[in-house]
Amino acid sequence: MTLSEVLIAFKSTHETEPILFRAPARINLIGEHTDYNDGFVMPAAVDRELFFAIAPNRKDIYELTALEMKASVSINAGLNQVPGQGWAKYFYAVLEVLHEKGLPLKTVACVFGGNIPIGSGMSSSAALTCGFAFALNDLFDWKLSRLELAKVGQAVEHRVGIKCGLMDQYAVLFGKKEQVVKLDCQQHTHEYAPLKLGDYRLVLFNSMVQHSLADSAYNDRRKSCESVLDFLNKKTGITSLKDLTIEKLVAFKSEIDSVAYQRVRYVLEENQRVLAAQKALMTGELMTLGQLMYASHEGLSNEYEVSCEELDFLVDQVRDEAGVLGARMMGGGFGGCTLNLIHADAIERIQKKLNRKYDEKFGKKPEMTEVVTADGISRV
Ligand code: GLA
Predict the structure, then answer these.
(1) pLDDT > 90: percent of the chain
(2) Domain covering 200-371 assigned CATH 3.30.70.890 in the classification
(3) DSSP string, 130-147
(4) Is the pLDDT of residue 66 over 70?
(5) 300 CA from centroid of ligand 1 (Å)
(6) Distance in Å, CA 218 to ligand 1 centroid
């Protein structure tokens, strides 16, 4: 679905001239499951987007149309009836959160559509919630900052989806072309690092699975890290895992549940990998970056235990291939896609191999998406 298709669809059902917005998907180069642990992450906005055509409608309902779903939903201005459709629940929650923040909501007509592969782990929901909140903020001139909008998106996710960190929302709002965003999730401050990949490309392979335990397992991991923090807070006074060193953690090993210990240890190691990746990007050491990606995957698979057979398979199959610098599962896990750093000349060969091998093993082909970095949400 393109921007002009969204515009045409809007004009065919509404009489006003809409304002247009775009909201990108995100990838995460490295730093997984560290965001809700006050750690570091390194995402980027990419060139898969949702487009919104939106205008005040002077009615007592919000008129929402999801072009890809071929569905329209009305939400009444009083917000007293939650819509049934999954996507509309996100819109509803955005309105609810903004209303609770005391913002003077006015009803709008909104048509949206785009080209973000749904369920691939590229955060189509952050694009949707932050894109819609950004559009309303712009339209009604509320002057919310990008950080405030990211927090609106996160609050929505906590109501509708999972108890996520701030990475996805931050990435789609603060992303910048040819840069990754190194975000400090404790301070909510960021630095950009240049993504100069030369002949290498960012390639996603979608496992085409979404395991049903994903949300509860995610919230579970979060709880288990929080329980270690609670314990260490009582013992040492630290108030954030950011203030914990591996040495300090090791000192309390015998007093911490072994699974929780392993999870927190992973988080501390992953934070170190993000810092190392930032350095590698600054000095152009792409081999090092690739190795860090593999190490991240190992940690996610064996220590944090959020990978799955399909994702492990996709990473294992590319590991020894010429032209592949690194690969790892990306996002929450239990499905979604792997992120790979592949030489442009090797992509076709790797894709063919994965199509064949994955099909032999799982009876399907992993959808491939090549992405480049893009700017964060904007008015078009
Ligand atoms: C999901 C969440 C993010 C982050 C990642 C894992 O994408 O929405 O906040 O926790 O998982 O790194």
Answers:
(1) 96
(2) yes
(3) HHHHHHHHHHTT----HH
(4) yes
(5) 12
(6) 9
